[in-house]
Structures are given as C-alpha cells and as structure tokens.
Amino acid sequence: MSYKEKIDAILARIEQTIVGKREISELSLTALLAGGHVLLEDVPGVGKTVMVKSLAASIGAEFKRIQFTPDLLPSDVLGVSIYNPQQMEFEFRPGPIVGNIILADEINRTSPKTQAALLEGMEESSITIDGKTLQLPQPFFVMATQNPIEYEGTYPLPEAQMDRFLFKLKMGYPTRDEEIEVLSRSESQIPPELTAPAIALEDLLGLQVAASNVIVDATVKSYIVDCATATRNHASVYLGVSPRGSLGLMKACQAYALISGRNYATPDDVQYLLPYAFSHRIILHPDAEYSGHSIDDVLIDVLAKVRVPFVRANSV
C-alpha cells in the first residue's frame, strides 16, 4: 500500500468505532506521525478514551492506561526497582509509561511532581530510573485527558508540561444524528482492542519517517517563525509561543501534508494547525483577560496581521 492508502486505512479503522469525529482523528494521527503528544480537554462521556483505544488498535500498538489520582506517585508511572533475594540484586519492574500509546487519564488530578514524571518520556522517549536511562518503545505517544469543568481537587498543568503537548484538542458533543448512530452501534459493537489493526506497527514507523521527509519551503518556515514571534510581541500576551512550539508546528505541517497526500507543506497547513499547536502555549496579561480578550482572539489577530507567503507547488 502507498502512504496515503495506509493513512486512509487507519482513519477508516478508527471510524468503525468513533462516529463523526474525522477531524479529531486526523489531528490525533497528525500528532502521532509528527512524534508529538495530544492533550484532550473536554467534559466526560464524549469519547476521549475510546478515541485513544481506537488509535492504538488501528496500528497494533501496545496500549497502556494511567489513571491519575491525587495519591499517584512518580514510581507508579515510571516503575520501581524491587530486590530479588534469589538473584541477590534489584530488578526493575517497568511502570505503565513503558508502552506505545499511553492514555494519561485526568492528568490534572495528580500532583505536579507526578505530572513531571511524564516530561522526560514525552520529550526524549526515555526515562531515567536509579541513574540508568531506559529507551521507551517506538512509537511512543501520550494522549492526556482533562476535564475543563471541575477544578476542585485538580492541579493545573505547569507551563513546562503544557509545552510538551503538540496539540490541544476538544472532542465536542456529537450531532443528533451522530448520537443516534452511537446508540445503534453500541448494540453489537466489538471493543476496538479486539479488532484487527489496519496496518502493522512497523508500517506506522515508516509513516513517521515519511512525514519527517516532507519538504518545508524556507518561506513556510519563515511564516511559522513570524507567527510565533507575533504572539510574543502581542500587546495582550504575557508569555508567547516558545521555539519548541515553532518546531512542533513545522513537524505537524509535515505530517498533515502526508495525510493530505502531499510531499510538501503549505501556508494553508500552517493556518489550519496553528490554533491547535499554539493555543495552550500562550498566557495572557491579566489586564487583557479582565478586558474580555481571549487566546482565540490573539491567534485570529496574529493570522490576520502576519503576511502569508506565496509558495508554488513546483518550487518545493
């Protein structure tokens, strides 16, 4: 199969379980192909967990779930060394972070110390235990969820943690017809983890390599940097997008171009993906918030004011 056929097979496989969320499926797959991670923020019961399970099942990946609670410890995430009296040495028992697709469920319900246990894995695909570094399986993809409504007993994610996520997405409620379809499918639907994958895990690794080889013209790179710089200089913004955000957006554009059947990224890709890649990396001035300004307003203003480059398809 071609790259496009493999990607379409993955999305079709996800849609066997998820109804009416094609855009979220594409964006989640974009993040996975770009080597990034996703923060899903929405109310309970809209299909966040099913989305992660379906994505893992579609590529035959090892799925692990971490239920974040106030009493969760870093060792509960990373693993722990236990003394084996027969061997007279310590043995490392890996935690649930050692897998391919990791669901960090309700990540904001645990302490910042435990949240930070994910940082090294999300950035470097490795964890360090007792001074030893362990490489995590590839691909390694974290999809974290949090409820934006309940604040009691939660710990807001620190900026260092938020910056590790490539995208911040919202599932949203289904339409009336979609919800009826959900009810109809639930009567006889097979759980996603029990169905055959659309592609092998090795094929997914090949798609990641292909995404990294997508051409990004110099003018598109400049456009990304100009947009990031505009957030830093915006009058309403206290903290703008970091260079990690610029790099993440470029990689996302490469992956999205591959999903769209192209071997080159365009300014349109930047405009489409920028809100998902930048919104969670911006902090507004308190005065701006009091005045009713929002991060969405800032991003709309940035996209309106930064000059869009013209790129010929045959020039890249």
UniProtKB/TrEMBL annotation:
Ranges for domain ChlI/MoxR AAA lid: 230-298
InterPro entries the UniProt entry points to: ATPase_AAA-3, CbbQ/NirQ/NorQ/GpvN, ChlI/MoxR_AAA_lid, P-loop_NTPase
Pfam families reported in the protein's UniProt record: AAA_3, AAA_lid_2
Domain of life: Bacteria
Domain ATPase AAA-3: 37-167
Database matches in PANTHER family: METHANOL DEHYDROGENASE REGULATOR, MOXR FAMILY PROTEIN
Name under which the protein is recorded: MoxR family ATPase
UniProt source species: Sporosarcina jeotgali
Lineage: Bacteria, Bacillati, Bacillota, Bacilli, Bacillales
